[in-house]
Specification:
Elements lengths: L4 E3 L5 E9 L1 H4 L9 E2 L10 H20 L8 E5 L6 H7 L6 E3 L6 H14 L5 E8 L1 H8 L15 E2 L2 E8 L6 E6 L14 H20 L8 E4 L3 H13 L9 E3 H4 L11 E2 L1 H17 L5 E9 L3 H5 L6 E9 L2
Parallel strand pairs: 2-3, 4-5, 4-6, 7-12, 10-11, 10-13
Antiparallel strand pairs: 1-9, 2-8, 6-8, 9-14, 13-14
């Protein structure tokens, strides 16, 4: 369906999801729908990095149990996170005797994984694939910004990295909501260099992928019950709705952002949530639950990622961003 969009003729099913959330996320507006909420951000480990890895392992193990499948049924694990060399995902993968495909697209890793998993299953190469991503506030904060002990004041345009991990099983069998199409995004850079302003940096990438999806599929925003972006936050959501309207698309009545719904946004979280765990746990709990109940039947889910590092930020580079979209529908 054009250069960037794949139509999945076999309609791979999402047969199971599982979400692990931190205490702060559990106290938010959708906390009641998470499968597990941590009482301690260390998750019983000695470091936050080990806790992040344990969250991913927990999500992967339990999504398989929840599906009724056996570990031996899983053909591949597609996983990623925000830490250098995606160590949380890679270290979690060593707990499972499953072929591992490590991926990285920052906070858009979940939709990259869902799109790749659906492509592999639809092509007949594998039957059952687990997709898992996650993040942790305390690990991301000290990698991308400042040491936690520094106690820096957060600027008002900033977001709060979500502590959480989610996993989903994409299968050639089952009657769950189906992934019907995927639009792979391009790297977009509008010249934003403020590492705290993720919403402004990522909104143009979301717009580019949305317009590509609508153009190549012939669909309009009205086709979908909901258009879900990953973690633009309150500011980024406003920017997206404004700039895409200038290109002839009105998504205002259909759009919701995971970064806006995961927290009770106030002076502490500022613009809302971000991180690879943000869109993952919102989709694997709240959105997937509504699809299963058929309260939603057609959802376009596109997470957004800022492809920066501490080195590029310190060298004054602008922030290139990416967004991938997957259409998830009930038959």
């Amino acid at each position: 369906m054009g250069k960037h969009t794949i139509w999945f003729h076999s309609r791979p099913s999402i047969v199971s999801t599982y979400s692990v959330a931190g205490k702060k996320e559990g106290d938010g507006p959708i906390g009641s729908v998470f499968d597990r909420i941590l009482s301690d951000d260390y998750f019983g480990e000695k470091t936050f990095e080990k806790a992040e890895c344990k969250m991913l392992s927990t999500a992967i193990e339990n999504v398989i149990k929840k599906s009724g499948y056996d570990k031996s049924d899983i053909d591949a694990l597609i996983s990623g996170d925000l830490l250098n060399q995606i160590v949380s995902a890679s270290f979690a993968a060593r707990d499972f005797n499953i072929p591992y495909i490590g991926i990285y697209n920052a906070c858009s890793t979940v939709t990259e994984g869902l799109a790749l998993g659906a492509t592999i299953v639809d092509g007949g190469y594998m039957s059952d694939v687990v997709v898992a991503t996650g993040s942790h506030f305390s690990t991301a904060e000290r990698q991308y910004r400042y040491p936690l002990e520094f106690g820096s004041v957060r600027p008002p345009q900033s977001q709060w990295t979500v502590t959480g991990s989610g996993a989903a099983i994409i299968s050639s069998r089952g009657d769950g909501p189906s992934i019907t199409a995927a639009t792979f995004g391009k790297v977009v850079d509008y010249g934003v260099s403020d590492a705290n302003n993720m919403g402004a940096a990522m909104a143009p990438a979301a717009m580019d992928t949305l317009i590509t999806h609508f153009t190549e599929t012939g669909r309009t925003p009205d086709y979908y019950d909901l258009i879900v972006t990953g973690d633009l936050g309150a500011l980024g959501s406003r920017i997206l709705k404004h700039i895409i309207s200038q290109n002839g698309y009105d998504i205002s009545e259909k759009h919701v952002d995971c970064g806006e719904v995961i927290y009770n946004i106030d002076e502490e979280e500022y613009q809302g949530g971000s991180g690879a765990g943000c869109s993952t746990i919102v989709f694997c709990s709240y959105i997937y639950g509504k699809l299963k109940k058929r309260e939603l039947n057609k959802v376009l889910f596109l997470a957004t990622g800022a492809l920066l590092s501490t080195v590029t930020t310190q060298q004054g580079e602008t922030i290139p961003c990416i967004s991938h979209a997957v259409a998830v529908e009930n038959d």
